[in-house]
């Protein structure tokens, strides 16, 4: 289907100016932010939207990303689309744009200069499709973090680790002190996310790009890949028996309450520590990488705005998109969420030391890597995820055999 940029309907264009007066509408927003920290963050969006417009934010929180995306998709296909829906920075919504089911945000992007203020540019490029812009990035999330209980390591009499190899060395001391060394939930996405963090820590940026972008089987057979698999397998013995089916924020709470030493989880976990009143550097540590040479991927969340038949709803959609990207809201939302803002002119004086560390890394283009979802299809990702889960659940798998299976996946990847 060929898309061309079209002028926004008159009422929507008027909604973009401060002098416009439009009828109040109820705008339903589907998202999956249900934990304490996530709810605090999405409340920023809701409160600011209702305070700055005459419209109402109708909250439609659905636990779990896949469930929320599935519900939004069903609503769109069924002819009852929500006003906005959360997706990830990925190719998840490309088919919706191709089918003409999403609002083209290009007029707003041009008016507000999104190409000048959103960084890195790659996260906006994900939203592009045949000359239009069909999503709005609202944050930058990275998986490349570990969260450590400072009192737990002090109780065990060992130093905080800076790398995963160092963690493996001190994990027995935590265990002997009655502390679960490695906290993780049994949900597949938690295990696979941790696996990718371990992989990047050993491959580095060059190896990561050869693995995901170039799909080079030789990388899978190399010593760095072997080291990543060995670390991943070793970490399993330092988990607790209650990890099966435990959700991520309950797992984070084990670190917050100093029952566990370390959790690998994306920077959204910082919101849970903030909600608990924890102080970074005193109660917990945020370990980038965790590596001496840390990188951050530029994943995160976007919102799509399904096409509507009512021009007043469309006008409200443009107002919501504009509000989400405003400097004030970007600062408030991302500080609550634990993520980094998508624009580089935001006053982040309220940022804590963990966010400041993330911003410092993000300021160096060489420290940024695209999310692997930009290079591989959902089918290839599924094959890799299934293999990582098998490795996690079967400690008897040989490293060389695992490497060969990854090499085979890469050799046959799209």
Task: State which percent range the strand residues make up.
Answer: 5-15%
Shape category: globular
Instruction: Indicate the CATH architecture of the largest domain.
Output: 3-Layer(aba) Sandwich
Parts with pLDDT < 50 across at least 5 consecutive residues:
1-20
Q: What would you call the structural class?
A: alpha/beta
CATH top level of the largest domain?
Alpha Beta
Tell how many strands the DSSP assignment holds.
Answer: 13
CATH superfamily of the largest domain: Periplasmic binding protein-like II
| Helical stretch tally | 19
From the N-terminal CA to the C-terminal CA, the straight-line distance is: 23 Å
Number of domains: 2
- Major beta-sheet overview: 5 strands, mixed
**What name does the CATH topology of the largest domain carry?**
D-Maltodextrin-Binding Protein, domain 2
Chain-averaged pLDDT: 91
Protein architecture, described:
Keywords: Signal, Transport. The protein has 19 helices and 13 strands. It is of the alpha/beta class. It folds into 2 domains: 10-141 and 298-344, 3-Layer(aba) Sandwich (D-Maltodextrin-Binding Protein, domain 2), CATH 3.40.190.10; 145-297 and 372-411, D-Maltodextrin-Binding Protein, domain 2 (3-Layer(aba) Sandwich), CATH 3.40.190. The strands form 4 sheets. A 5-stranded mixed sheet has the order 2-1-3-12-6. α8 (150-156) crosses α9 (164-176), α10 (188-212) crosses α18 and α12 crosses α19 (399-411). The two termini are 23 Å apart.
